[in-house]
Amino acid sequence: MTRDTWQSDVLAEETHSGGLWSLILLLALIGPAFSVALVPSTPARVALAVAGVIGLGAIAMAAAGFQYRFLRDGVEVRTLGFKLRSIPKQAIVSYSIEPWAFIRGYGIRGIGSTRAYVWGNKVVHIKTSTGEVYLGHSDPEKIVHELDRVTGFNLAGAGEPTIDAVTTHSSGTHQATVGARHKSGSWFLVLTCLMWVALPISALEYWDGWDSFPPHMAVHFDSSFRPNGFASRETAVITGLGIMGAMLVLFTVVCLSARAWKPEAAWVALLISYIVVAILWYANHSIVKFNLNAQPAHSELVGSDPWLPVTHTS
Questions:
Q1: Which run of H or E residues covers position 133?
Q2: pTM metric for this prediction
Q3: Which residues have C-beta within 8 Å of that of residue 293, sequence separation ≥ 6?
Q4: Domains of the chain in sequence order
Q5: 217 near 230, Cβ under 8 Å?
Q6: What's the rounded Cα separation, in Å, for the pair 62 and 181?
Q7: Continuous H helices in 152-262
Q8: Mean pLDDT computed over 124-141
Q9: For residue 266, how many other CB atoms are within 10 A of its CB?
Q10: CA–CA separation, 62 vs 293, rounded Å?
Q11: What is the pLDDT of residue 186?
Q12: I need a surface site. Which of 65, 110, 131, 303 has the fewest CB within 10 A?
């Protein structure tokens, strides 16, 4: 199976992408980027650049997904135009549909002779004479069908049981499963709504300190936490709360969409959302605290510095 495989040798192609994961990875980069923008420093910028390169690569791979090419003499796994693995037809021993646990991770997984290419919670487990391969797909039956075409006969079920084979049809078990999922979904909705508490808390902090704020507030700081950017009280409040509100809307849509379409990724999306919202709340809290505790001061010895913290003594 070479790069210039004749088109007539290709029986079918399937793509397994991780569009939701690419969005989650993108959101994970927003928090660090905001922190560096608020408190810039050379080490932080270097770290963000490294994380950005790695993160953007992962985002591109998740968005493009894994491409499976089913050929007359085997299967190829590709991503971003690069071939990751070839599975010769004669090496395939068995294959079956299995669930994929969240704890096992996503993307390219595995060590040694075992490899997994997964962005979802369903896989086709292929046992070969040289190791094991897991191919993720939202409709694994399609993968099984194409493998049947490659091998020329039905190996599904010859090895491990398929999802249908291991799924219980007991009404009691089914009701318990549905009840557990409903309870989990209720908690997820509650926690998603609870995330919005950060907005009124920040708004109350601005409200309580409004009369004590200087006409122009410090809103941007250098690596020594000395202000180097200022804005009017109105602009500072609108910007601080506006960014938080916009991110809360985005995170809510992402979390609820993940819950509906990619349940295995929903809790990860919610965790990342809480982390970023916590960073945004802390940024607003720090701005409020600094502007309440700092007053314009001038010193003939030190020079003019419009924002020196004032120490209150009794």
A1: strand 131-136
A2: 0.55
A3: 309, 310
A4: 7-17+65-166 (2.30.29.30), 171-293 (no CATH)
A5: yes
A6: 27
A7: 163-166, 171-194, 198-209, 233-261
A8: 94
A9: 24
A10: 46
A11: 77
A12: 303
Structure tokens at 262: 């990619």
Mean predicted confidence (pLDDT) in 200-210: 90
Count CA atoms within 13 Å of residue 200 on its CB side. 5
Contacts of 256 (CB under 8 A, 6+ apart): 192
With tokens 């971003």, the residue in question is 80
Q: Which of 241, 245, 263 is nearest to 180 (CA)?
A: 263
Query: Closest Cα partner for 57 from 40, 86, 38, 82?
Result: 82
Summarised one tens digit per residue, pLDDT across range 157-170 is 444 444 344 333 44
Strand partners, 218: 230
**Helix/strand/coil (H, E, C) string of 273-296?**
HHHHHHHHHHHHHHHHHHHHHEEE
Q: Could you tell me which residues are beta bridge partners of residue 117?
A: 108, 135
Task: For residue range 107-120, list pLDDT tens digits in order.
Answer: 998 888 899 999 98
